[in-house]
Specification:
Elements: E1 13-19, E2 22-28, H1 38-41, H2 46-53, H3 59-76, E3 98-105, E4 108-115, E5 120-127, H4 136-139, H5 142-149, H6 153-178, E6 187-191, E7 196-201, E8 210-219, E9 222-231
Antiparallel strand pairs: 1-2, 2-4, 3-4, 5-9, 6-7, 7-8, 8-9
Helix pairs in contact: 2-3
Bound molecules: coenzyme A.
């Protein structure tokens, strides 16, 4: 990660991060719904800028920041990205050979890009404060609620937030395969202490099997989670126990 160089102007690179799932790049956002300047829009491909102009309020700066981050992450892999537009479900359409995903929160947009050999990619960025532990009932399965309840009280919120964020990353990585809404109770997540997490899918539509690799990364005041999902072909399936 870059050393702290003080406040970063809006739409500049805040930091770059190499992770086992891909290159992550963060771009600062202005925390204002004001339309993005033409000079900034000019850093995007023309069709991306045209799409950005159709977006209202905060969606415009978020989209622009996410695309600028995606572009820089592609460059880190030696690729100049063509225009990356959303498909009908909102998934960014990366060129062949690459996987990528975007997340934004108030003042930061993050994109991660990787080669697509290890499957699709999903990322999610969350601010740690303020704690909102009441979301647990909606996003956690019973076994996850039990696991969180067993944590020391001071660790419980982060246990909830990590599971929530990894599930949002799962949603983004899974969408290209299942093309439907996947509910929070369709996955169960157990974060480890080492930045990895075990994720088990309980897909209501019976899709799969999939291999899910989940990770989390600590950032100042935020967490970034990432998930890679690969569809298992028949020879990859675990042998049936006899
Ligand atoms: C779609 C969803 C995951 C987006 O998360 P969010 O916190 O609202 O927003 P984020 O800033 O993190 O992500 C937005 C980005 O996600 C991407 N995205 C949107 N829809 C997507 C989809 N269907 N598949 C993959 N990526 C998608 C886009 O890149 C979007 O940014 P952009 O429009 O500027 O390109 C969320 O709104 C949602 O519906 N969650 C509920 C479902 C869920 O998480 N289930 C858990 C399953 S285990």
């Amino acid at each position: 990660m870059a050393l702290d160089r003080g406040p970063v102007p809006p739409y500049d690179i805040a930091f770059q991060l190499g992770t086992p799932h891909g290159v992550a790049v963060a771009v600062t956002l202005p925390d204002s719904p004001d339309p993005v300047d033409d000079a900034i829009l000019g850093r995007l491909c023309a069709v991306e800028a045209k799409h950005a102009r159709t977006l209202q309020g905060y969606r415009q700066p978020q989209f622009v920041g996410g695309r600028l981050a995606l572009r820089r992450a592609g460059e880190q892999l030696g690729r100049t990205l063509p225009a990356v537009l959303p498909d009908s479900r909102g998934t960014p359409q990366l060129p062949k050979g690459l996987a990528g995903s975007i997340s934004h929160k108030r003042t930061l947009a993050v994109a991660m890009v990787a080669h697509d050999g290890d499957g699709t990619l999903g990322v999610d960025l969350e601010e740690v404060a303020p704690a909102r532990p009441t979301v647990a009932r909606s996003v956690l399965r019973p076994e996850e609620l039990e696991a969180v309840a067993e944590l020391p009280e001071a660790r419980q919120w982060i246990g909830i937030l990590l599971r929530f964020s990894i599930k949002e990353s799962i949603y983004k990585a899974l969408d290209p395969y299942v093309r439907r809404y996947v509910g929070f109770h369709e996955a169960s997540v157990t974060p480890g202490l080492d930045g990895t997490a075990v994720a088990v899918l309980h897909l209501a539509g019976g899709e799969g099997p999939f291999e899910v690799d989940a990770r989390y990364h600590w950032l100042p005041e935020r967490i970034l989670t990432s998930v890679r999902i690969r569809r298992l072909s028949a020879p990859d399936r675990a042998p049936i126990a006899r």
